[in-house]
Amino acid sequence: MRVTMIHALAESIPPVRLAFGEEFPEAEVINVLDEGLLADFDDEITPDLRRRMSNLIGYCQDNDADAIGLACSVYAPVVDSARDLVNVPLVSSYGPVMEDAVAMGPRVGLVASVAATLRDSEYYLNLAAKGAGKKVEAVNCLAEDLVSVLRAEGQQGLERRLEEEVAKMAGDVDVVLLGQFSFAAALAHLQKVSPVPVLSAPHSSARTLKRLLLG
Predict the structure, then answer these.
(1) For residue 177, what are the domain limits?
(2) 44 pLDDT band (50/70/90 cuts)?
(3) Which residues contact residue 47 at a Cβ distance below 8 angstroms, ignoring those fewer than 6 apart?
């Protein structure tokens, strides 16, 4: 059972391996990385970028993917237009985790290092809430240094910074959602120290893809 994950950040690959190892170990996970997807992104998905991502999605199916997942949160909107291009399950980085967040809300803390990711996260959170017939309140946390801390200090630095941000918002939310795949490496630590539940997008994606492929 082959699951192909598309990445725009190399740092999101280890968390995906971790999440699938914990949630869907039966899967053969293939990671496809195009760092240009993030380097060329300037706060909006241009037609060229949309086409590049769509081509990658098609490439994954052509190379025997049984399911495809996006690990790059800012490209989640492409999934809506690309679903008709493939005949295997295709999930965005947002869909599965937003359903989990809505179920645990209604006050949902969103943590990201990119303003566009926060904006899209809130949009998809509200969309999931509407689909579930519920209302949610998003509490946004923009911490622009998180990726640079991860690159400079590794997992321990990321855990420290995320713990700081989660602690700040914990009194105002029912659940915290880590808005970027690369943050999932800190999930186990945060689950130990956070007074509220913490969700990781790759863990939610792995659970959803396991359900779609294995029932």
Answers:
(1) 95-201
(2) confident
(3) none
Same domain, 75 and 127: no
- The total domain count for the chain is 2
CA 41 to chain centre: 17
Residue 18 identity? L
Predicted confidence at residue 184, as pLDDT, reads 86
Query: DSSP letters along 45-76, please?
Result: --HHHHHHHHHHHHHHHHTT-SEEEE--GGGH
Quote the pTM value.
0.85
Q: Does residue 105 share a domain with residue 88? A: no
Tell me the CATH number at 27: 3.40.50.1860
17 with 70, same domain?
A: yes
The pLDDT of residue 125: 95
